[in-house]
Amino acid sequence: MSEKVNQQETTMEETEQVEQNPQAEEQESIEPIFDENNENSSKEEELTLEEAKEKIASLEKALEEAENRYLRLRADFDNFRRRTNLEKEAAEKYRAQSLISDLLPAIDNFERALQMEPSNEQTKSLLQGMEMVYRSLLEALKKEGVEPIKAVGQPFDPHLHQAVMQANEEGVDSNVVVEELQKGYKLKDRVIRPSMVKVNQ
Fold this sequence. Notes:
It is a single chain. The chain is of the alpha+beta class and 201 residues long. It folds into 2 domains: 2-91; 94-200, Head domain of nucleotide exchange factor GrpE (Nucleotide Exchange Factor Grpe, Chain A, domain 2, Roll). Helix content is 66%, strand content 14%. It contains 4 helices and 6 strands.
């Protein structure tokens, strides 16, 4: 009899404990589920973050490539513009070169004619008129930037002189021009005809 009473008391105590603390059982059953959800959520966040980092890296690479292409195109355009300007300046600077080159043989003929000794007054007057024309031509060429190349007494320069003969004169340094056979000319800083010269050995 006493055992039944004890069992009933124990059952009643357990029932009271369950009734007094019903949330404990709920927490025990919820906690594993809550932890699992948190773990899945963290994994999803990690994947999303990793994908975002990859996307950012891809965009940064694409931006860098686009910037490099832009810089190359800009450099190519600047070079093209600079080259075009130089060609334009050169065309303006040396615009008269073709005409001047055609005039040089006439200048040579004037110089050869003016070296003649007049035999009479008529020839002398003719030579004086030719000299006036010759000087007018030289003045016009000078205004265009044409000037004769210095030769006799100058060190031989293959950029300015064309050696056609050699000499062996004493008292003259080696590789010095001793005679000019045909006058050379420059248009500004460009040689349009080198001087034909004799050079000492």
